[in-house]
Each structure stands twice: as structure tokens, then as C-alpha cells.
Amino acid sequence: MHYRFATKAQYRLAQITDCHLLASSEDLYKGVQPARYLAAIVAHLVQQQPDAVLLTGDVTQDHTPASYQLLCHIMAPLSCPVFCLPGNHDDVEQLAWLCEQAPFRPERSLKLAGWQLLLLNTKGDTPAGVFMPAEQQWLQQQCEQTTAEAIWLFCHHHPAPLNCFIDKHGQLNQAQLWQSINEQPRIRGIGHGHAHYAYHRRQQQVDIVGCPASSVQFLPTPDWQTVDQGPQWCDWHFSANGEVRWQFQRLNLSKSSNND
């Protein structure tokens, strides 16, 4: 099942990841109110009017129906479609319910002029990611069937080591993922969440882009350290001519209400 956008020269998408919402909008995650931070991003995006929003995993922290209902309430002001993929903290059944609520959509394959965006499921039974055989087959089929000149992947878990503590919860079978990527020369890059910090690097001629969290950031250190830098996300610009750009974004909010 594909979602096809109207043809135009350029598309702007906003990637939001690792929201870690809890049942109440007042609840704290690592010292911040994640609902407040996410709502601030959404209010900004309502003014910017992107073509779509991508939620790339760990949208809630506590797996409760109330946290997914809160997410639905926060995202409701958006007029663009919202697409989701699961992270290690997400409940698959709750995500399925979420994708039936406006403005959410269930598609994992998005067609934007000369681009095909594919949303991968790397959720496993542990916090680490797994690229299951069924997902490998789905990726191969999508790449073979699309007529797009360029393909970009999104997933939750980081696809290559970051040399910090989060690697113990990284992609377990990275070799299989990279084998699938290398078999498809039109795959230009992969965007992900999970790491809670912004970075870009290239591996095997493929761009890897880590999206900062909307909640708190993790420092890329051997031990687990968190820092409150305000709500963050990543803006993506996909052009019909095959060009792609991304920009990490941050909002400056008063921190006082996080400590009320």
C-alpha cells in the first residue's frame, strides 16, 4: 500500500522521533514534560505547513492507551498526513489503532515525484533492533516494484555503530541490513531515531542521518548521560530532481514549567 503525493518540484517533511510521551501531559521523562515539547513542535509545524510528518519510533514511554490517545490529541492540529514506524518502546497494537485516527496514515511506502520513501520496522523483542527476514523481503519487493529514481529509508534503530553506550541497543543484524541496502543502488540514505542526538555521516556511499529527539538528548559517551536542550526534530527537503537536504531544528522554550 503506497501513499502518493501530488507532483511538485520539492517536498518538505518533518521527522519527529523519541517523543516518550506518558499517560498524562504533566508526566516527566528524564526531567522534562515530553508532551509540552512535542506540542511546541506541532504548533510550529502548523505554521510551516510541511507536506507530511514522520514519527520514527518511541512515540510513547509507558505503552499505555492513554499515552497514544495523548499523542493523537497533540498531533490533531496538523493538516498534513502523519506516518509512523515502531520503536522499541512502542506497542504495535496501539500503533495500529493510532494509524486509523486522523491525521495519521497506515502506509509505509511514500511516493514523492522521483523519490520513494520506505518506512522500515526494526522493532524486536528487546530494546535492540532487528531486521527480520519478512522486512528484508518487503524492502526488496518495494525496491523492485518502484519506478522512482531514488529511494530513502527511515527506521528507528541506528544502522551502524556510534561508539557510545546506545550501541548495546543498536541494530543486532546490521550485516543483513547493509546487504539489502547494497543490493539496491538507488538507496541514497537512511534516517533514524533512537540515538537521541543529531549527526550525519556516510557509510558505503550511503548517507546516515540521526534525528534528535523531541524530548531529551543523549550524549554520545560510553555511559548514559542525558541533557535537556529543548524540543528538536529534523526537516527534510526532497526535490523531484533527486536532490535531498536535511536540517536539524530546535525550539527555545522556558524550562520553568518542567519543574513546576
From TrEMBL:
Domain of life: Bacteria
Gene3D superfamilies assigned: 3.60.21.10
Ranges for domain Calcineurin-like phosphoesterase: 12-196
UniProt-listed InterPro entries: Calcineurin-like_PHP, CNP_phosphodiesterase-III, Metallo-depent_PP-like
Stored PANTHER family: CYCLIC NUCLEOTIDE PHOSPHODIESTERASE CBUA0032-RELATED, PHOSPHOHYDROLASE
Entry similarity comment: Belongs to the cyclic nucleotide phosphodiesterase class-III family.
Identification of the protein by name: Icc protein
The organism of origin for this protein: Rheinheimera nanhaiensis E407-8
